[in-house]
Design brief:
Blueprint lengths: L4 H4 L3 H14 L2 H13 L4 H34 L7 H23 L4 H6 L2 H18 L3 H7 L2 H6 L1 H14 L4 H15 L3 H15 L1
Length: 209
Amino acid sequence: MTISFARSGIRPDALTTALLWLVRALPAVALTVLIQQVIAHESDWRLALAAEAPDIVGSAALFTLAATMAVTPLVTLTGWRGHVPLRRDMGLWTLGLGLTEVVVGILAASTGWLDAIAGTAFLAAGTGAVVLAVPLALTSYPTAQRFLGRQWKVLHRLTHGVVVLVIAHVGFLGPDQIALVAALFGPSYLLRIPAVRRWVVARRRGKAA
């Protein structure tokens, strides 16, 4: 079935805007679920946060980071750029969720805040990713882009450092998690290889012609 925007009275740009806002709101579901789990928990709220946050908020941060990295490869695949604004939004969500997980760890720590953020290699990698994401978030706006000029792109290459630290963070959970991060980030990085990107774009343009 083909949907006719003209007959339905829905403008394509209006539909795109609505879909973008829907995607922007999705990560908030993780915070809602976390709050519900803490409220439903019968024990101390700090213990509830410590038990639930890594799975709920940590997983959401992983997926928002993967979504951030997938924006440009999706342009390569489709030629459509309507979703490009999501790159900054998903990046900001990644930082917000990551900071939430760090703060929860500090609140629930019984051996001091330093142990909570860097007591193990697993925690240190996660905290490092959050710290590295802060300057990227602060300079993700057009004003910063104009102010920094060419240096903006140099700075934002740190995004790949965030990905490396997150992969290390998840990898410390066990070998089975490597398959997950490979599935989430592998295609995006494959499509960033110049030869692959050129081949995909040529195929897409050839089909369009």
